Amino acid sequence: MRIEQQPLVVPSPTDLHQQVSEMIDWLATYGGQGEHGDHGVTRTLYSPAWQAAQSALEHCMREGGLIPRYDDVGNLFGRLSGTEQDGRVILTGSHLDTVVDGGKYDGAYGIIASFIAVRYLKEHYGTPRRSIEVVSLCEEEGSRFPMTYWGSGSMTGIRDMQQVEGIADAEGISFREAMGQAGFGMGIHPSPRRDDLECFIELHVEQGEVLEREGQSIGLVSHIVGQRRYEVTVSGESNHAGTTPMEWRRDALLTAAELIRLVGEWAKRQGDGLVATVGRMEIHPNVGNVIAREVTFSLDVRHPDAEVIRQFCEALFIEWKKIAAAQGTTLTYHKWMDEDPVAMSETLASKAQMILARQGISHRRMTSGAGHDSQVFGTYCPTSLLFVPSHLGISHSPREFTGTDELVCGVRLLIELLYELAY
Amino acid sequence: MRIEQQPLVVPSPTDLHQQVSEMIDWLATYGGQGEHGDHGVTRTLYSPAWQAAQSALEHCMREGGLIPRYDDVGNLFGRLSGTEQDGRVILTGSHLDTVVDGGKYDGAYGIIASFIAVRYLKEHYGTPRRSIEVVSLCEEEGSRFPMTYWGSGSMTGIRDMQQVEGIADAEGISFREAMGQAGFGMGIHPSPRRDDLECFIELHVEQGEVLEREGQSIGLVSHIVGQRRYEVTVSGESNHAGTTPMEWRRDALLTAAELIRLVGEWAKRQGDGLVATVGRMEIHPNVGNVIAREVTFSLDVRHPDAEVIRQFCEALFIEWKKIAAAQGTTLTYHKWMDEDPVAMSETLASKAQMILARQGISHRRMTSGAGHDSQVFGTYCPTSLLFVPSHLGISHSPREFTGTDELVCGVRLLIELLYELAY
Fold first, then answer.
1. Which of A151, A423, B96, B338 has CB atoms 3.0–4.6 Å from A137's, for a disulfide?
2. Which structural domains are found in chain A, ordered by start?
């Protein structure tokens, strides 16, 4: 502990370049294809690659002067204890798991950036006032089991063991069994529930093109958007494509086309950042010379204001029903996801903004259209989600890419932010 | 031979009812599921069920006083030789094969009706002037191999052995091999090519709802419509459904929806009997939270006037390209089928119409929106295609149905028509 605070010296970008680049490539070898995982990374919850990566990070943390420990769902924490007695912890990190054939940055970057930042602070400024923990969250993507945010959710209490009873992966291995194979869920490690978190700070790749197109280095996220997801079914009547006059048809695909077209028109017209997507369709019987009997499709609507989503959907369905009725087809829909937007901490965002202004780093406020662990922590403690650019917005792909210079911008911001909060 | 023609006595509907009904049920047992094939008939080219059916029909023909013979592609003919020396033949029948899980009437009815009619004429009026042959055409549907109209086409010359080189069924059995297994294609039977056909008359179920809805018993087909079939591809760009603003999207599914909607609007607006159908679509990657990168879909356009089809498609593609360009997606299309309409014989249709007027049977002129063997014969010799109603227009299904009374109407028409042409 220092009696008077030393002014912070942030490492130059050049100083950080190699260690950031090397650690990204190193972590990508766990579950990676090709050199440095350049041909894709597949590191799913409790898999051998996942276990090896957590072990390796545990070793890293210890080498870096942090005290590592697991909780009983497999989250890994590297702790730098502070001098203050209240025991509250600044948590920083991201998720270790990937989608199948994902990239090297999604989740991994946040863990690596947090680790490098905290290691730097420890090496140069010793013990903080406030405790800091770097976290490698066990799971976020839902890529092995039908379960998302297992790491963050178990810590805040929105996830529990009951929710994973009876779920299994594509090979039929149950969640419980997989946990056990990795050494978790057996009471060896402490329960994941936390009540000592001061805040959560997550660096993540944008998975969109806004920063790159607008030429900014950092995105300060104000909200994680709310989203609703529906399954929509249009029912008509199959008939022969040659012998059925147009006026007697009840063509489910024609109606679906009309409905989907309207989604695009209305979403574009909305102009306030709302996004609406139909990404998936199934047509039955899906034969060229048979009029479609039934079409199901997905609808995904997102906006930072839940009321805006509600109004959009309500008006859309009223218009949709008119269209289907006019075409003699029937429409049913089922809402299977309804997540409220989550606001990030304005205080933390402002601190970050001032740091970036001082550093002369270009930045902007923005919303996150994708879900993150930050949305789970965000309803639980002050949370800051900070984006670095994604090249061409590519994500969930081996082609996912962020230049090291941009990754380093994030680390330098985090070093200053953590110093300000903890030292 | 009779010196003076006897006036024709057509059997009463009651007289025909049982034999028509029984023969439909009997033929349906070949390849049929359930009693009388009530749960579906699957009788594909050269299969064991197909062979058994041809054999059984051969026997039937012999018992009925017709001379049976095969040609070398497996068509079966039952001949009633006439007294005239020119050797020209009135051919009447339909196809023996079915689609997978088809019904009892499609094709089978035409064979059965022709057989019953000719057998009646022979029994009561003996030898005709002109030779008549009942034909059970080996194949029409293309349901086992990617080959349609193999029976009629081999007779008229639009099909030949070169076209079936290298094609195989879903199990990998080659066409040649399957032919050989059934005893054909080896020169045992005469070549299928014919140059002695006076005309071709085919009774068939409508496979549409016009006759049933309009309450008529017989449809006199004036044209088999022309048809064009396209494969259309829209290309855009995959992106994250949450993080990609609407204005930056190149959504292949949104464009496809717009294009498909237009097909329906224009076809309905056309109002002249044109039908246009999009029955099949594939979306890539077809994931709910990913903007579609590529969509392919089928387009099927039919009308009795080839020029109408041409103009419709030309105008459609011009408008389509504008739509795609406005949305930043690209459009390509490939025409893989372009069949001209085929006119049926007006002379034969008029004769049929006068017979029906005398019989007091309701009828109408109409086009056929589906392809038939009559379209192959129709460019080769005067041809008459005569429809009986299809209940609810259902076809290519175990639920295909036509009441026996209506089947009998067709037989009574055919008896008079053949008598008029051959006796």
1. A151
2. 13-224+341-422 (3.40.630.10), 226-339 (3.30.70.360)
